[in-house]
Design a protein that fits this description.
Length: 76
């Protein structure tokens, strides 16, 4: 298990848990990032910028400050 901000670019992962406030949880869940869901980390912006995630056919940006609180595992 690792935090999402540590996952290598190009890897597929599965969300294990989200240790976020209710508001932040609702925000990321609206994009489909919920426990048990598979995703792809397609890009990492330089200089501490956001991560580009793909969940199903949805692509969105996620702040690294939120990604630190999302526990994931590498998908097989």
């Amino acid at each position: 298990m690792m935090s999402l901000d540590k996952l290598p670019v190009g890897c597929k992962g599965v969300v294990h848990s989200l240790d976020l406030s209710d508001e932040a949880f609702r925000r990321v869940a609206a994009f489909g990032l919920i426990p048990g869901r598979q995703f792809n980390l397609s890009r990492r912006a330089p200089f501490g910028g956001p991560l580009v995630l793909e969940v199903g056919c949805t692509r969105f940006l996620l702040r690294r400050s939120l990604a630190k609180f999302i526990q994931v595992r590498v998908a097989r």
